[in-house]
User: What shape does this take?
Amino acid sequence: MMQGDLFGYPEPKPSTRQEPRRPPEFDYLKESVEFIDSIFWGYRWYYEARRREHESAIANRPPRKAAVPADIHEKIATALEMQDYKTAKSEDGPHQYCLLKNWRGTTSLYDVVNLINEYGRVTWAWNRPYMTYFIGEFKYWTLGYPIEVETLINRTLDRNCTREELLKYS
Assistant: This one.
């Protein structure tokens, strides 16, 4: 018997596809952000459990020994550098973020998230493990949710900094 939520709706099944799901036209993603958010908030308990599974899987992941291929690094760097970043209002953990609805370029956010998860390294922040990718003076990470509901990428300087320092890079 399939387990359902309080209203009897079945749990969403995890995707079995190896490649990230991406519609043929990139503009479709921008219009579907509200739909993705409604799915996430409707099944938040499910996606939080998947995020915790992801955290426990990466917490014990051995460090990557092979270097990132130059073409992959260039693809990630180019995609991340052309985004518009907003500076978060928090003072205790200053960071910036870019959203799916404002994503620019030919490489999709989902491709970049997959590459960060594949080639990044584990760092700990706020008592949680995150897959982090370092480019220049910045480090980039996602929140660790399943790819189908991931809607942003965070970044901060690869050193202790203040919110005012980050505002210079906006």
